[in-house]
## 1
Amino acid sequence: SARIGVLALQGGVSEHIEALTRVGAEVVAVRTPEHLHGLDGIVLPGGESSVLDKLLRMFELRDPLTALLRGGLPAYGTCAGLILLADTVLDLAPGQQGLGGLPVTVRRNAFGSQAHSFETELAFAGIDHPVRATFIRAPLITEVGEGTDVLARLADGGVVATRYRNLLGTSFHPELTGDDSVHEYFVEMVRAAQNG
Ligand code: GLN
């Protein structure tokens, strides 16, 4: 079966653990470098990306996790997790550095104060029904690199889900809606990589 870690330093950890468990993954809460051993994939949850960046260093997870990602470990970043995976981040907090790997540019807190948080339904390439999506101080994907697929857009065309090889990123939180289809999509990615 697919053994999937959820980075468990801060943010929306338990909802991801529950969703992945519902779709049949074996889930590991990742707090130490040892927890990274033997993973087939990892989820980087939402929260606050600048805080996650600091905690990754404090817990000595940043370097081993970066090495695993460069080696092709499948990863799914939601919201702050997407910011960690993005190659380029606009409006970084002072001193903040990402992990990179996903060839996109994202803008932190791109929706401004009026649209702080909202919920909508999105067509998602590879999923056969509209996906419920919750946005909370979300980043927007403003540029998409060569070879990177756009999987979902807002009605105004703004890109909110992308995939490059084994890296998946969404601006939104699917784990807060009870719709597990994006988690299912990621588990399928992980299984394909296992058999690959
Ligand atoms: N605004 C947060 C950040 O910059 C992300 C918010 C979220 O993950 N829901 O990291």
## 2
Amino acid sequence: MIIAVDGPAASGKGTIAKALGRHYDLPVLDTGLLYRAVGLSVLKAGGDPDLEADALAAAGFDDDILSDPALRSEAVGSLASRVSVHQSVRDALIERQRDFATQPGGAILDGRDIGTVIAPDADAKIFVTASVQVRADRRFKDALGHGGHPDMDSLIADIQARDTRDMSRDHAPLKQAPGADLLDTSDLTIDAAVQRAIALVDAQL
Ligand code: C5P
């Protein structure tokens, strides 16, 4: 069984994917981490994320980088969004994602193009979204919880910039896949969103 969970930054897709993993007892791959690893590798190598050759060289990252705490920062999220526009970078990460998706017993993958490109034949597909204001608010609380001093206006600007880049790129743009159910988490608690996701998946199986 393959479950595809896609959606924009801070929509709640990662939390939902992990909860589905526990519910259905399936392994979960956060595919955004792979693009973040490429973004962070480019930074460490002193390369230019907008230059396809530099981004592609970074796609051969060492797996140690996947446990680097810097991977989760918004700065690296933005770098990830810049390297992910290059088709050759996306191609370099496909096999790893498809291998994960097709392991015996099944898998859940979350990202931007799982239902459209990586696993178009997934058994269940969900597109998770939330308003920009709600997503920025989640990031704001996250940052406060980690002892940061977030600025709401720049969080909103970052999210809007990332949405625009992810949705308007030529290759594998972020969009609701055919057959995917929309789950808007703007007014839902985490528990309610997870229950709704389980109901949507069960109805598709
Ligand atoms: O989900 P996350 O915020 O970690 O993703 C970081 C960036 O990686 C996204 O903004 C997007 O540009 C890119 N990405 C992608 N395809 C995926 C997952 C992430 O292009 N399947």
